[in-house]
Amino acid sequence: MERRMTQFSPAPDRLTLRRPDDWHVHLRDGDVLKAVVRYTARQFGRAIVMPNLSPPITTVAAARAYRERILAALAESPAVLGGDGAVGDVSAFVPLMTCYLTDDISPDEVARGHQEGVFTAAKLYPANATTNSAHGVTDVRNIYSVLERMQEIGMPLLIHGEVTDADIDIFDREAVFIDRTMSRLVADFPALKVVFEHITTEDAAQFVVDAPETVGATITPHHLEISRNAMLVGGIRPHYYCLPIVKRERHRQALRKAATGGNAKFFLGTDTAPHARNAKETGCGCAGIFNAPHALEAYAKVFEEEDALDRLEAFASENGPRFYGLPLNEGTVTLERAQNAVPETLPGGQVEIVPFHAGSMLSWRLASS
Ligand SMILES: NC(=O)N[C@@H](CC(=O)O)C(=O)O
Ligand SMILES: [Zn+2]
Ligand SMILES: [Zn+2]
């Protein structure tokens, strides 16, 4: 059995990491954007910003304009959580934009966006798989010419990996997507960089391990922390409802092994997905967990429980940029061991949003530098 230093040294009280990035965020727009963007910017150097606005980001011009709105919202946003952590770095936050793929999007538009430094990647939502995906792709063969271009120019493809067929049980949608779509896609485009986003099953983790080096995956803090029992036992908890839906405990265990096991194909992507409280606590609630406020603290908790704190930096700050072919960040962030009470709700400008871990106590806190 491999031995690592942490097994023999006392638990640290401070953890300094190269500044991490978040490879999957939903920042939304308007008032919600203004309310949430700073939570991501105070922890992360860069973030891959999902394009599922309404209407979705499908042109270079729309992505440029959205990037401007994100930076303007960040500049105007109030300090959060009693301070900004490494305040100087908040304004250095870089939103990395993505293009929402549709059945008829032009390969030229996608490629031009990448070449002009606007689209870092393109996102494949199977039509109707998740929030704001009605314009998504109905059959992956419809975008094969786009994928060919992306493969040629080295532009990563990000995938929400779930089938949407009505006859497939919601808990099986990711595993069936691997069989029906993912395996074939990876075989047909051997040089295309593919990120299997927010993986939730043992099947997906194993698929990524077995796949060529061109395939990576993001893992969220919530899929590492909760299984479907947490969502459904003792009452239904709408704030734990997200897509892909949380699975059985054995899948959570497999994801924890994948994230903390030192395989560079796995990296940090929170999938922070804010929805107003009244859109979650209702007869037909929205999918999405708002975990940006304490994302790093949540990952640190998991890595510590798995006795793998020494592997947190690679997962959070190195594997992602290396996969994307981007430089590592220069600065650092520090987590300190401290009682960190998570509020029941965070005032989100005019919108009230309930964070992941609401009302509970975390044992790490982002230090103010
Ligand atoms: N993850 C979610 O549950 N929701 C995301 C969409 C997504 O990432 O699938 C959202 O935009 O709300
Ligand atoms: Zn998704
Ligand atoms: Zn998402």
From TrEMBL:
PANTHER family: DIHYDROOROTASE. CDD domains: DHOase (cd01294). This is Dihydroorotase. Catalyzes the reversible cyclization of carbamoyl aspartate to dihydroorotate. GO terms for biological process: 'de novo' pyrimidine nucleobase biosynthetic process; 'de novo' UMP biosynthetic process. Zn(2+) 2 binds at K123, H160, H198. It comes from the Bacteria. Binds 2 Zn(2+) ions per subunit. InterPro entries: Amidohydro-rel, DHOdimr, Dihydroorotase_CS, Metal_Hydrolase. Pathway: Pyrimidine metabolism; UMP biosynthesis via de novo pathway; (S)-dihydroorotate from bicarbonate: step 3/3. Signal peptide: none annotated. The modification N6-carboxylysine is found at K123. Gene3D superfamilies: Metal-dependent hydrolases (3.20.20.140). One of its GO terms (cellular component) is cytosol. Residues 22-333 form the Amidohydrolase-related domain. The keyword Repeat does not apply. Zn(2+) 1 binds at H24, H26, K123, D271. PROSITE patterns: DIHYDROOROTASE_1, DIHYDROOROTASE_2. Keywords: Hydrolase, Metal-binding, Pyrimidine biosynthesis, Zinc.
